[in-house]
Amino acid sequence: MKIHTTVSALVAGCAVVVMSAVSGLAAQTPQDQPAAADQAKPPSGMEATCQAMMAEREKMMTGMKAADQRLDELVATMNTASGMEKMTATAAVVTEMVTQRRTMREGMMTMREGMMSHMMEHMQAGAASMAMCPMMKQMGDMKH
What we know:
By secondary structure, the chain is mostly helical. The protein contains five helices and no strands. Helix 1 (2-28) packs parallel to helix 3 (84-125) and helix 2 (44-80) packs antiparallel against helix 3.
């Protein structure tokens, strides 16, 4: 659960930074932009990228649930063990936790780079493009 909270906080923080940059850039851009109706949805190629990023996020969330379940099983085994078996089970729990932490950190760095690149594409397409991004919409719906 802590992993989910950490990832959510990271994603929300990145979104805040990008959204504040968008409003600053919007104030500096010339007013000869196309009408808002022309920007009602992201360019067609970008929509596919939005969906791919959402799918990647879902894959990550599914993986985190599976990792939590593996850890729960190892902890249950540890809690019922005694003697030398308990020491072996405790080592298995610690090893799994370290492995999961490394995997989470690598995944977060990869996702962060991809999200920042994706958000920059939206910024170049205009503020309305970012507002229509399914990922941004979902983040706006998150309850803290």
